[in-house]
Structure prediction request, 907 residues.
Amino acid sequence: MNSLDLARWQFGLTTLLHFAVVGISIGLVLHVAWMQTRWHRTGDERYLRLTRFYGKLMLLSFAVGVVTGILQSFQFGMNWSRFSAYVGDVFGAPLALEGLGAFFVEAVFLGLWMFGWGRLPRRLHLACVWIVAGAALLSAYAILVANTWMQHPVGYELVDGRARLTNVLPVLFNVNVGLTTAHVLFGALLAGTTIVLAVAAVQLLRGRDAEVFRPVVAFGLKVGLVAAIGAATFGHFQGMLALKQQPMKMAAAEALYETESPAGLSLFALAGISTDPGRLLVDVKLPVALSVLNDFSTSSTVRGIDELQAEAEARYGPGDYTPVVGLMYWSFRTMVGGGTALIGIMAFGLWLLWRGSLFGGGVGARRYLRLLLLAPALPLLAQAGGWILREGGRQPWIVEGLLRTDVANSPNVGLLAVALSLGGYLLVYALAFLFAGRTAVHEVREGLEGEHSLSPAPGAEAGRRSSSSSDLALTY
Amino acid sequence: MPDLNALETIWFAAIVLLWGLYFVLEGFDFGVGMLMRRVRRDHDDRRVALHAIGPTWAANEVWAVIAVVAMFGAFPGWYGAWASALYLPLTLILLSLIARNLAIELIGKREDARWRAAWERVLAIASTLAPFLWGMAWSAVVWGVAMRGGDVVASPLDVLSPYSLAGGVAYVLLARAAGAAFLTLRTAEDVRAAAAAQLRITAPLTAVCVAGFLAWTLDAAPGSPGVVGWIAAAGCLGALVTLGVAGAVGARRGAAGAVGGAAVADRGAAGAGRGAAGAIGGTAAADRGAAGAFGAACAAIALLLASWFALLFPAGIAGADGGPALPLADAAAGSYSLWLMTGVTVLLLPLVVGLQAWSYWLFRHRITRADVGAPPPSPVDLVARIAGGRAAGGAPDTGAVAEAGPGARAAAPGDARAIPRGPGFRRRRAT
Prediction:
């Protein structure tokens, strides 16, 4: 273990935790915005109560998202100074867009939304939450632009051993960015939806406010099914694209050592514990299926690790160009398995709903609601698997084909410094998740606020006005 | 050292501006956090102070990220060397900021006196540590870091020096003064009185200490300040004098309600012109004093930073012991990228600054206890507090009592589990 390894662990762990929270936040803000819109349009008090109830969870999630996100903009320079010097030219514009156009806007409007209850005119207050949602989506897009460039560098030239941006358009708009953004955003919507569903299921199981939470479950299941199918579809096209752009990643994800034509889909494989076992001990395959999935043809060739390794050596010189095969293989299966399970869960729930037995209180329905309590774990697992595959499958490159990971870290930062900072971050992250999680559980137990009327006069000025404690439930 | 071209120079100036915005805006938020334990009697007071920064603090913090991203994009080599050289302070800054954010977000989420007391302590410590480390980090960059061929070769502990520690203290003092003035301007009743008392002590102390630090900087730091640097340093000194006078004299006269505060207020108003305080400045003499002090403290922070950057220019990091510095020209991005970032910034920055100004304007009213759902102090409260306040150890910290109506707080016996008053809090009639 050296400082490079630990820096990689630090980036991987902190980013996975950050992305988990951010996914939930994006999903939740969309749901909250929709609930508030329903209240605004129909005047239905139930949706006001739902907006404020889920709003509290959303704010907690944003809070943890911000604290885990501050780190990211510093970490590049602290642990990866050579990488920063290499890519800064390209990353500047997307990150400036993210900072000024998304992160900042989000912070301002989230503050306005929290403190604006009863103070801002209703339409403006509603606009605030939609602007937060839009900023969150833009933020995800900008970060994915930067990340995609590391997978598929375009629009640059090399000057003095650094990438210089020559054309930003292919960086901002390419097929990889589009598919990835769609995939990630559907995944985020799915993550938020499972939280919404699980929280509603808690209330239904406890028999509280059933008339309020039933429509939430009915709507959530539909959104969840659409999001799960959307994520799977775009993920599939991402895989097809990766086969062309990063064939080694896909070969590792399939643990396909030898080139096959037509290629079979591996269902279950095992090999010796090693970063590159070379041969599989067990490999259960569905013939031809991988070729069909990759190309919609029964005869296409899928290149294997051995061929790709030899090709890379011929091109870049001797070295190991194979990622950790076992990790890629099982990460891929975690992602696909989680997504497929979610499609099944959502579809089954909708079937129960269509039969009219979901809210009947029968044993089966209650079992299903209990199943929904566990559902939030699946998008998180799938998302983690997906990111490990996307980033791990690119190794040994930090920028595909251009810069190797092992020469990209900060030369002056030693093992002890990275170890201590990693320990510190993990400790405060654990505390953040613990306390925010406990607070969230507490809010869920409390349930909906009582019925009350929050109705600022249309066009009310943010002036002097004493507040009731209910106005302030979402502030500090 | 190679010269920067015009676009690179503009980006250097933009980065100075962004860091200045961050240090000023988050500075008074840090100050409010530091002073929390000294300006509150019970949890409602705490909420008053938190609501004064409530809708705006998160956006203030984002300027750090924007400044860092601007360095990353415009001078990638500078960003990498800077962040890895400052590994120790930046790690601790990030941990402090995380702790501080959590404290602000979570302190009010539970009706539990121990929970609140614990998070308040976290808030106070993190709000002191973060500005100390920020001041230390930039002082260390100005003082010099061992470099070889564009790579930092210093160890993480090399950033510790008497000068950098003094720089940390300087920024903590400035942030504290700005925070006290901000609370005086933005709150009412007891919190305001306590904040004004804090300002009266902090302002002159800050003025003297930071002036000394400024002299040390100009005397001993490597690099030459140049004309811009001398102007910035002179402005900083002027702001410090204004801060000391407006803070000490203005706040006292104003708080006492003296009519003779007008002359001070004029001097205070002059200070206000330097900063953003003009927008917030009230009409009362105390407000003018506090507004002057606030503007002066903000101006002093910004100008101290400007002096540092003037010393650095055209390097990004000074070399240690006469060693090589990091020339910015070598660390800069290509002109295509710089023009692109300029476009994004020109489009978005005015919008963003406008948005932030608008959010301050929307929430411009003074925060009172009534704003946080607590009853205003009634005569019964005052009598009870004067009679038994010290023995009772302050009002019980429960939401239930706060909702029971005026007078209830005084009637409720002070329970032993209630948070003790912060050591510096003095009972004082609301002015």
In short: Chain B has one domain: 6-372.
